[in-house]
């Protein structure tokens, strides 16, 4: 089971939810911090890291002795990562998406595969909890390839919790795609509601069931619950504004360890997510049978 913890905006409490949910479930769980541009789940988990991997991606390198300046590499590249200017071929490695198309179409085999370092992946454990996160290289703009490498560590026999980046851009899609459930963490503010609507739109395009967790739920107004009701999105849990919770967060402490009564609430949250996943599977099964009967 893969559960992605996401939101439309930053600062809503995704990491708080992801870390406390993972620790509440105990051993046999993986926590993947896919916010590779600014990973911070480790500040709460305090894992013992066992290995560090340097992650690279393929980029084109030009052999100018073989190149005839035919321009076919530039024609196929949809990202303008390689261009022919005068008598020179210029690869822009920062724009390259590593599709390999330029190498395939080059009639002179003048393009070879090079490598550009994306960042690092660190793997560790904490009391039976497996923890993996990525760190994007400073100055690197291509987060999705590193996120996919972090996600490649997901084990099919374990519960996998993904702490996704904020927003609705490519890194978020890379963190949500293929998940069985997306838990959207939001807050009852105008900004929170605005960005939540964008996140809900992205999740629905991907066809993934979702639910809401409202952080600082006793602040703001009623527009957020009204939106959830209108869109038929279940509110699975609420966390009130509490100074003790804020203090624990500021110290890098886990809510379920400082206030043990919250552990049961996070376990109930997980049970509710399991129920919604099962309902979605049953609905898909019924739809598939009807489609088969209709054909």
Question: How would you summarize the topology of this molecule?
Answer:
Elements: E1 2-6, H1 14-25, E2 29-33, H2 42-45, E3 48-62, H3 72-76, E4 82-85, E5 88-91, H4 101-105, E6 111-126, E7 129-136, H5 143-151, E8 159-163, H6 170-176, E9 181-186, H7 190-206, E10 210-215, H8 223-230, E11 235-239, H9 243-250, H10 255-258, H11 261-294
Helix pairs in contact: 1-11, 5-6
Task: Write structural notes for this entry.
- The strands form 2 sheets. The protein has a 9-stranded mixed sheet, sandwiched between helices. A two-stranded antiparallel ribbon has the order 4-5.
- The protein has about 300 residues and is α/β, with parallel strands linked by helices.
- The longest helix is centred in the last third of the chain and has 34 residues, at about 260-295.
- About 40% of the residues are buried.
- Helices cover about 40% and strands about 25% of the residues.
- It folds into 2 domains: about 1-55 and about 130-295, Rossmann fold (3-Layer(aba) Sandwich), CATH 3.40.50; about 65-110, 2-Layer Sandwich (Alpha-Beta Plaits).
- It has 11 helices and 11 strands.
- The protein is globular, with a radius of gyration of 22 Å.
């Amino acid at each position: 089971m893969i559960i992605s913890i996401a939101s439309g905006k930053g600062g809503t409490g995704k990491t708080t939810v992801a870390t406390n949910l993972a620790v509440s479930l105990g051993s046999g769980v993986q926590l993947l911090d896919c916010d590779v541009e600014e990973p911070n789940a480790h500040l709460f988990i305090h894992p013992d890291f066992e290995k560090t991997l340097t992650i690279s991606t393929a980029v084109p390198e030009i052999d100018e002795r073989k190149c005839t300046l035919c321009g076919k590499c530039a024609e196929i590249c949809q990202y303008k990562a390689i261009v022919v200017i005068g008598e020179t071929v210029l690869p822009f490695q920062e724009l390259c998406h590593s599709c390999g198309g330029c190498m395939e179409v080059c009639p002179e085999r003048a393009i070879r595969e090079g490598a550009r370092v994306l960042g690092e992946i660190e793997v560790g454990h904490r009391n039976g909890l497996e923890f993996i996160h990525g760190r994007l290289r400073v100055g690197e703009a291509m987060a999705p390839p590193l996120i996919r490498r972090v996600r490649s560590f997901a084990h099919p026999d374990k519960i996998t919790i993904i702490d996704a980046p904020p927003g609705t851009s490519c890194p978020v899609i890379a963190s949500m795609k293929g998940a069985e459930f997306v838990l959207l963490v939001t807050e009852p503010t105008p900004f929170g509601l605005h960005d939540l609507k964008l996140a809900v739109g992205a999740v629905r395009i991907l066809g993934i069931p979702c639910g809401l967790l409202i952080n600082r739920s006793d602040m703001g107004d009623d527009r957020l619950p009204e939106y959830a009701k209108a869109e038929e999105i279940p509110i699975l849990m609420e966390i009130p504004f509490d100074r003790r919770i804020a203090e624990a967060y500021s110290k890098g402490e886990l809510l379920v360890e400082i206030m043990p009564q919250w552990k049961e609430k996070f376990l109930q949250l997980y049970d509710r997510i399991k129920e919604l996943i099962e309902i979605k599977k049953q609905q898909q099964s019924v739809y598939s049978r009807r489609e088969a009967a209709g054909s």
